[in-house]
Amino acid sequence: MQVTSLFPFHKLPYQVWLMMVKRRMFPLLIASALAVMVYIIFTLSRSQPGNHQHLYPRHISDQSITPVNDTKHFMVGAYKEHRVTGCSVRIISIFRRDSVQPLYCVFYCGTHWANGTKAEVQMHSDHFGFPFVTTDVLCPNLPDCNPSHVTLATQADAKLAQNQSFLRIQNLVKMEEEEFQFNFTVCWSNLFGDYNNVLQVTQTLEMYKLLGVQHVVVYNTSCGPDLERLLQSYTQEGFVEVVPWPIDQHMNPSRGWQPIEHGGDIHYYGQLTTLNDCVYRHMYQSRYVLLNDIDEIITPYQHQTLPQMMDVLQRQHPKAEVFLIENHIFPKSQFEPSGKFERPRWRDVPGINIMEHIYREEPDYRIYHPSKMIVRPRAVEQTSVHSVLRNFGQTVKVPPNVCHIIHVRVPLRRGLTKKELHEDKRVWDYERQLVPNVDKALEQAGLLI
Ligand SMILES: *[C@@H]1O[C@H](CO)[C@@H](O)[C@H](O)[C@H]1NC(C)=O
Ligand SMILES: *[C@@H]1O[C@H](CO)[C@@H](O)[C@H](O)[C@H]1NC(C)=O
Ligand SMILES: *[C@@H]1O[C@H](CO)[C@@H](O)[C@H](O)[C@H]1NC(C)=O
Ligand SMILES: *[C@@H]1O[C@H](CO)[C@@H](O)[C@H](O)[C@H]1NC(C)=O
Ligand SMILES: *[C@@H]1O[C@H](CO)[C@@H](O)[C@H](O)[C@H]1NC(C)=O
């Protein structure tokens, strides 16, 4: 296999090919293409039947949840780790806590196999008592291996593991911020049941567009029929990315956060795993990632947009990497009296009209008051819902008068009257663009008659 070290062109990431095209480096481009052809012919000529070492993993998983053979665990995503010394690849996984056994990372190194090396299993601290927990598997560095695919096996021999499902390793190239595709990405934790809150989701997506977000990701187990149409329309447009999340095909996911009350195998349909996977997927794609729920809008109150706000916050706190944003609840049971946004066009669209609910609960600061987050994903190692578990940088609590979450839902502090709530019409400030944009999005999805 010495030939391959002379021609490493077949391992070039696609970005390099793109760059060659963009910069019109045609001689180099042709030479690289020729080298790849020589490589392919060379490898094909070697793969006679009877040669038991396959030249490439035979099964590459295209699922977002892949069982680990001979165990009760699951792999979700494999990511090259550029920040932790001694660790080459991190596999975001779901482990059954009572069944942990020694595991090996078996690499396919682009041109050859490497026998497995002992994996370091890091179960996250927040499992809420459920049998399954989000887990990071750290695969050690291996000399002479530039891994492209990885799997977990119960034994170290690569030959025996060759027929297992391998994951493609993502984040192979450590991109610089200037090259990122997005500045602001929203990660919504998972969608399940027959959730069909179309109007609130449309208003939320259009608010996020006006606030300067470029990309919204949602992990989907299931949803209602109208929301399905809406998400398909936004996916076609390119603003929303839906990641399939068939967790219910592998275990009995819980609809809540307490095993005693809600039963099931894993907290909230595996919400913690999807948030971690989303952070790693966007580590070298998005400058900031917003971690919140589908019915929450992280809204700036002193700036028009999130980029403007983050510029200022980042200048005030140059070392900050995690920004905690207070959650504020706007009860859906309180309506503003003028009825100016009770629009006939929206009457038959299922879901909450957030523009009618402009009264905000004062948080009860004596009890635990949860926040959600804006993070620089490159600084995050492990995240939970309301805080990060392990990270490299500093954490800043953003004052609520600078930014808080608009969360229209059932009241948290029941029995409060309008007088005891704060009027908060921030969404109305965006009315002139928001209302026609919501109409247009609903029309595009075929949800307005
Ligand atoms: C991998 O392990 C097997 C079994 O222990 C051994 O026979 C083989 O030589 C090893 N391969 C390499 C490349 O080290
Ligand atoms: C892998 O699959 C091939 C083709 O089915 C088979 O010949 C080979 O024995 C299998 N290897 C192992 C280790 O199971
Ligand atoms: C997975 O494990 C089962 C049970 O031990 C075994 O029969 C099967 O061959 C393994 N599959 C692969 C692809 O290694
Ligand atoms: C991200 O922000 C920078 C300046 O802060 C800007 O130059 C760049 O165009 C923005 N990227 C996107 C995708 O909007
Ligand atoms: C969400 O997942 C369900 C179940 O797999 C699927 O039927 C539906 O089409 C998915 N929705 C979207 C918008 O991808």
From TrEMBL:
Membrane topology: Single-pass membrane protein
Gene Ontology molecular function, alphabetical: glycosyltransferase activity
GO cellular component: cytoplasm; membrane
InterPro entries associated with the record: Glyco_transf_92
EC number of this enzyme: 2.4.1.-
Chief place where the protein resides: membrane
PANTHER family: GLYCOSYLTRANSFERASE FAMILY 92 PROTEIN (PTHR21461:SF45)
Keyword Membrane set for record: yes
Transmembrane segments: 25-44
Enzyme class per UniProt: transferase
Keywords, comma-separated and alphabetical: Glycosyltransferase, Membrane, Transferase, Transmembrane, Transmembrane helix
Keyword match Cell membrane: no
Similarity field: Belongs to the glycosyltransferase 92 family.
Cellular compartment(s): Membrane
Name of the molecule in the record: Glycosyltransferase family 92 protein
UniProt-listed Pfam families: Glyco_transf_92
